């Protein structure tokens, strides 16, 4: 059973012309005319026009959904089908097996799959497009209200007490090498809490986060929207911290492909990127966000009321514990070079894999980043539609704890954390 729910002779005489060849020629001419009508030259036509896209029920699947619903994929010759996965593992396996050709994916997943880490079958994958920045949260059970907000140091005595009693606090993330795992690990570590020794860290699919907290299976989680807003609406928990306050404009989800598919179908990949560019620009017009919320609220996509989706898409944050904020660093899909597949982001992920014992030795940071982050496909796609690529940035990044990541010195950074699997 599929884990997805669907939403696609040398005689010198002219040879005789059959009805079938006439029909084929007519259809071919018709297809060419259709492509031309959308501005797609025959030389740019996708090698594989039928493309199945995977998504998970999170608001940051929006660029793929909007490109489908608004006809941007069709404009560039892609006949799209959107399939919703039950979990990130199901998404990864479907991409690896060729059941889908492109997918909404956590940044760390193509890196881990390319290296065969954390139980992932070794399957080279590529990231030619970042889908979004910002907009995730760390939520805590209502039991922590008034005790813990953004500073994880306030959580440490509570975590140590629970550990001493033999009932360690339980935190959930969506997939071990993914973004949510890295954000909650980084946050806990900054508070002096080891995520593998001081608390229990479990994997839960995004749409199941709220139900698991409701029945008392966990004390906190990190996930994308709308599940942080949902837990507040249901009176179960509150937002401790938004991930943009960990790292402003941090990388989040990507549009990923297997390396094999990208190498055999470069025009298809570039057609997809062109459509995603238009969808992303559409999404970053805040006047479109009410319509976005309505579209993605459908059961085939996020399956959550639009009124729970929209506020945070507009930067309107009610933390659920009395704090409210109009956040200028809400989720973006196009602005500030959002979509560029920065090699340094893959390098940062590799440093965290090292920090938490997921890599036994230093990888070739630069080479892995070069192979996974396909800047060539990204830049070619945009130039072909007259858009100047932007966003390349190799500068250091400073996160909320004041620690600076220099992509030119990754191993030093990876080994420099006090809370780490590399320290006894």
Structural class by sheet pairing and helices:
alpha/beta
Helix content: 25-40%
Beta-strand percentage? Answer: 15-25%
Lateral arrangement of strands in the main beta sheet: 1-3-2-4-11-5
Largest sheet: 6 strands, mixed
Mean pLDDT: 92
End-to-end distance: 45 Å
Based on CA atoms alone, the radius of gyration comes out at: 23 Å
Poorly predicted sequence stretches spanning 5 or more consecutive residues: 5-33
Number of helices: 17
Number of beta-strand segments: 15
Coarse morphology: globular
Summarize the structure.
The chain is 38% helix and 16% strand. With 424 residues, it is α/β, with parallel strands linked by helices. Helix 11 crosses helix 16 and helix 14 packs across helix 15.
Explain what you see:
It is a single chain. The chain has 424 residues and is of the alpha/beta class. 38% of the residues lie in helices and 16% in strands. It has a 6-stranded mixed sheet with strand order 1-3-2-4-11-5, with helices on both faces. Strands 8-7-9-6-10 form a 5-stranded mixed sheet, sandwiched between helices. Strands 12-13 form a two-stranded antiparallel sheet. Strand 14 and strand 15 form a beta hairpin. The radius of gyration is 23 Å and the shape is globular. The protein starts with a strand and ends in a 10-residue tail after the last helix. Mean pLDDT is 92; it is low at 5-33.
């Amino acid at each position: 059973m599929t884990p997805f729910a669907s939403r696609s002779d040398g005689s010198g005489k002219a040879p005789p012309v059959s009805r079938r060849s006439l029909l084929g020629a007519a259809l071919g001419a018709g297809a060419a005319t259709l492509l031309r009508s959308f501005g797609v030259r025959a030389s740019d036509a996708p090698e594989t026009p039928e493309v199945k896209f995977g998504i998970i029920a999170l608001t940051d699947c929006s660029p793929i959904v909007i490109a489908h619903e608004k006809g941007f994929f069709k404009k560039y010759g892609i006949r799209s089908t959107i399939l919703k996965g039950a979990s990130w593992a199901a998404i990864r396996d479907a991409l690896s097996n060729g059941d889908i050709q492109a997918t909404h994916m956590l940044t760390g997943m193509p890196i881990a799959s390319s290296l065969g880490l954390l139980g992932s079958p070794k399957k080279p994958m590529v990231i030619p497009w970042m889908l979004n920045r910002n907009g995730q949260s760390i939520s805590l059970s209502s039991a922590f209200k008034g005790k813990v907000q953004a500073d994880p140091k306030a959580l440490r005595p509570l975590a140590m007490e629970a550990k001493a009693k033999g009932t360690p606090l339980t935190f959930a993330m969506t997939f071990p090498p993914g973004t949510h795992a890295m954000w909650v690990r980084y946050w806990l570590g900054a508070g002096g809490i080891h995520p593998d020794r001081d608390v229990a860290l479990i994997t839960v699919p995004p749409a199941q986060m709220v139900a698991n907290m409701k029945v008392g299976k966990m004390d906190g989680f990190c996930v994308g929207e709308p599940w942080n807003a949902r837990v507040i609406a249901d009176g179960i928990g509150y937002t401790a911290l938004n991930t943009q306050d960990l790292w402003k404009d941090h990388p989040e989800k990507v549009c990923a492909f297997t390396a094999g598919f990208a190498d055999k179908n470069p025009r298809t990949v570039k057609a997809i990127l062109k459509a995603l560019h238009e969808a992303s620009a559409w999404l970053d017009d805040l006047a479109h966000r009410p319509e976005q919320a309505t579209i993605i609220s459908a059961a085939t996509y996020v399956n959550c009321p639009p009124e729970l989706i929209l506020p945070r898409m507009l930067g309107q944050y009610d933390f659920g514990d009395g704090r409210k904020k109009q956040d200028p660093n809400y989720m973006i899909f196009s602005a500030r070079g959002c979509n560029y597949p920065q090699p340094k982001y893959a390098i940062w992920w590799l440093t965290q894999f090292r920090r938490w014992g997921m890599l036994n030795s230093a990888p070739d940071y630069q080479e892995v980043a070069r192979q996974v982050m396909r800047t060539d496909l990204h830049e070619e796609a945009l130039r072909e539609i007259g858009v100047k690529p932007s966003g390349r940035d190799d500068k250091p990044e400073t996160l909320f704890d004041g620690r600076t990541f220099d992509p030119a010195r990754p191993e030093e950074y990876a080994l420099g954390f006090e809370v780490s699997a590399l320290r006894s």
